[in-house]
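Let's practice the habit of predicting before peeking. Look at the sequence and jot down your guess about where helices and strands might fall. Then scroll down.
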Amino acid sequence: MVDAQAARSGGTGVAGRRGYDAARRAVGRKRHALVDTDGRLLLPAISPADVHDSHGGIALLRMSRRPWPFVALCYADRAYAGPRVAGATQIRVELVGPKPGQRGFAVQPCRWVIERTFAWDRPVPPSARENEATPSSAAAYFVLAAATVLLRRLVTPFVELARTTPNPAERAKTYATWDARLVCGRGCVGVVHAACS
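Done guessing? Here is the structure:
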């Protein structure tokens, strides 16, 4: 999934070009993101806010070919309609939008995932402005926020086990079982091969 979000940038100490996004009435930068179906960040990009979503989408889709050549389908909203985005790479771009005749707000299939990713990016409590000084530091902060979410997903089962199992011997036995599932005999992390088990 690919999408963009405009963010206001502070005036003092902000380096790099900023732009005005008339649709969102924001002076600042635009964060473009390519995520997988679970909302994990694949590629971030930062541009001035006056760059159209489709231009950032083309750049992301082209950049994604080297690290993820197996990506074949990308969901996007109507801002990415047109032959330029569709013909930028071999990735098929499927537009997701409201049903004909729909009135009011409705959650779009597959689109809420990337909106959730943008929500994870903001600090707690959320600030109204992007305070990063340069576009590269804004991209680094975006990647750091995504890494924090992934780290939280990995650590949560261990924290829950520590809370619910007061006996250290039982906890150690459970940790050893998890380690056996995560690292197989040949050192393959994350998968257990039939030949290794």
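How did you do? Residues 181-197 have pLDDT under 50 and may be disordered.
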